[in-house]
Amino acid sequence: QGNMAFTGKYEFEGDENYDEFVTKIGLPADKIEMGKNCKIVTEVVQNGNDFTWTQHFPGGRTTTNTFTIGNEADMETMGGRKFKATVKMEGGKIVAEFPNYHHTAEISGGKLVEISTSSGVVYKRTSKKIA
């Protein structure tokens, strides 16, 4: 797996259950539209257990979460809400509890696969490595 397994730039390739998931977590309609089939580019810099996780949205908006595995960090949700979370590493997956969903991220077959679960709704987003 190596230490820098996550480092790279990934472009949105596809997702499953987007509408159902964002409705479930209460995202406002304008944000739902904005995120639909959105070519989000996710940039990850991993330095051991330290991560900088940036999402670049079309139109120039970015959100960045900086965290260290095992330590509490200030994070921001898809909808821009600020919260505190302790990010864990479990079997090569990054695991975080967001305020209203459970989130995992892993590198699988060279792709970044992110899964968010809220009350039984599973949202899966796949991004291909571009750098």
Topology:
Blueprint: E1 8-16, H1 18-24, H2 29-35, E2 41-47, E3 50-56, E4 62-68, E5 72-76, E6 82-86, E7 88-90, E8 93-97, E9 102-108, E10 111-118, E11 121-129
Antiparallel strand pairs: 1-2, 1-11, 2-3, 3-4, 5-6, 7-8, 8-9, 9-10, 10-11
What is the compact description of this entry?
This protein is mostly beta strands.
Main attributes?
single chain, 131 residues, mainly beta, Lipocalin, nine-stranded antiparallel sheet, two-stranded antiparallel sheet, 2 helices, 11% helix
Protein described:
This protein is mostly beta strands. The protein is built from two helices and eleven strands. The protein has one domain: Calycin beta-barrel core domain (Lipocalin). It has helices at residues 18-24, 29-35; strands at residues 8-16, 41-47, 50-56, 62-68, 72-76, 82-86, 88-90, 93-97, 102-108, 111-118, 121-129. A nine-stranded antiparallel β-sheet has the order 4-3-2-1-11-10-9-8-7. Strand 3 (50-56) and strand 4 form a beta hairpin. The protein is globular. The relative contact order is 0.23. This is FABP6 protein.
- Give the biggest sheet: 9 strands, antiparallel
Number of helices: 2
* CATH topology (fold) name: Lipocalin
Could you report the average pLDDT, rounded to the nearest whole number? 91
Strand share of the residues?
over 45%
Radius of gyration (CA) equals: 14 Å
How far apart are the first and last residues' alpha carbons, in Å? 18 Å
Domain module tally: 1
Write the CATH homologous superfamily: Calycin beta-barrel core domain
Count of extended strands:
11
Structural shape: globular
Strand arrangement across the biggest beta sheet: 4-3-2-1-11-10-9-8-7
**What's the CATH class, please?**
Mainly Beta
InterPro entries: Calycin, Fatty_acid-bd, ILBP
Family: Belongs to the calycin superfamily. Fatty-acid binding protein (FABP) family.
Pfam family, one: Lipocalin_7
Protein name: FABP6 protein
